[in-house]
Design brief:
Length: 150
């Protein structure tokens, strides 16, 4: 079943259950899908990879807003962002644990022959492609930096 069908079913269920936060998040996802489909040069259907990128973008926006709201002591707004983030994350693929990520990046460093922080670009290029959708870019970058500086 496609993401769009899941979203439509979720919207209907959220409306019937009067779940305001869930409805807000699902509508945001649906709007982003419509924008992506109608963007100039876009095909009528989104691939699974496109859907995943779209969801990751929405999740990242919520996380960034959450940090800002918490820094400004706006817990009322932070709660809304967290609620939406929780709904969006239900549709994202399972994220790697730190141990799994560390193992994967260590393997990538070994396979690319990287040995110093100067090789970070080479490692990041491979890591972001291999780990797309499975780990956050900031987490990948921080771990690559840590492992290459040893």
């Amino acid at each position: 079943m496609s993401l769009e069908l899941d979203i439509n079913a979720g919207i209907k269920a959220a409306m019937l259950g009067k779940k305001e936060a869930e409805l807000r998040a699902l509508r945001a996802i649906k709007a982003a899908i419509l924008v992506a489909k109608t963007a100039e040069g876009a095909s009528a259907e989104l691939t699974e990879a496109d859907e995943s990128k779209l969801l990751q973008k929405l999740a990242k926006q919520r996380k960034d807003s959450l940090e800002i709201f918490r820094a400004q002591n706006r817990e009322d707004l932070a709660v809304k962002e967290q609620e939406e983030l929780d709904v969006i994350e239900r549709f994202l693929p399972k994220q790697m644990s730190e141990a799994e990520l560390r193992t994967a990046i260590t393997d990538i460093i070994t396979s690319t022959g990287a040995s110093s922080p100067a090789d970070m670009g080479k490692v990041m290029g491979v890591a972001t492609k291999q780990l797309a959708g499975k780990a956050d870019g900031k987490a990948i970058s921080a771990l690559v930096k840590e492992l290459l500086s040893k």
